[in-house]
Amino acid sequence: YTPLSVCSHAIRTCWQSFERGDFGGDVDKALIDRVGNKNKHKSTLEHLYYTFYIQGISRALLQELARHRIASYSVKSTRYTLKELKAESSFLPVQENKQKAAKYLVLTNDEKVDSASIKALENLRLILLENTSLDVAKYCLPESYKSELTWSINARSLQNFLELRSSKSALWEIRELTNKIYEALPDEHKYIFENYACNKYYSVSY
């Protein structure tokens, strides 16, 4: 993450008031809150960047995450994951193989949905055994298939993300992610986002 002093320095550049700063201390933190949040000069918050390593999310969540365009994404290649899957034994019968399938799938605790996902995973495994091109085989990946990525985002965009995705109407999995992202922020930075993570303690229901 970017130190707060970088943001306060950027703000003070406008008025050349560097001598009033305290190198990211309480004075500079108050300045960032006043200018970036209260006075709505949110472009100044774009100097703060955060990078997260996010693991174990579904392709469904990845698709929603990609809607937040002012961010950088480096996603695990599906090809490498499919090579791992090809070496597995059968995922059937479903009930006996749920734990093994959970290595590859985000399960919802909805029996019918999870059963369909595991059957789709088994179908994919069988297709891979036929030496089908990985670029073609990945078209039958279920939305619940797990992925991971390194995600970088500036503070202004992160405020927007937390506000939208902590809503009760958001997908349960992305609400869970917003909780974890907020919790992972440096304690001295959380005050910038606390009004945007309004549902950060909302319990997730499947």
Question: Unreliable stretches, pLDDT < 50, 5 or more residues?
Answer: 199-206
Task: Using the CA coordinates, give the radius of gyration.
Answer: 21 Å
Average pLDDT score = 92
Order of helices and strands: HHEHEHHHHEHH
> Structural class of the secondary elements?
alpha+beta
Q: What is the count of β-strands?
A: 3
Q: Kindly estimate the percentage of residues that lie in beta strands according to DSSP.
A: 5-15%
- Cα distance spanning the termini: 32 Å
Percent of residues in helices comes to: 40-55%
Q: Mind describing the biggest β-sheet?
A: 3 strands, antiparallel
User: How does the overall form come out from the CA principal axes?
Assistant: elongated
Please give the order of strands in the largest beta sheet: 1-3-2
Number of helices: 9
List keywords for this structure.
206 residues; alpha+beta; 3-stranded antiparallel sheet; 9 helices; 45% helix
Notes on the structure:
The protein is an alpha+beta fold. The protein is built from nine helices and three strands. The chain has helices at residues 4-15, 26-38, 59-65, 78-86, 98-101, 111-129, 134-137, 155-165, 172-184; strands at 49-58, 71-75, 146-154. Strands 1-3-2 form a three-stranded antiparallel β-sheet. α1 crosses α2 (26-38) and α4 (78-86) crosses α6 (111-129). The two termini are 32 Å apart. Residues 199-206 have low confidence and may be disordered.
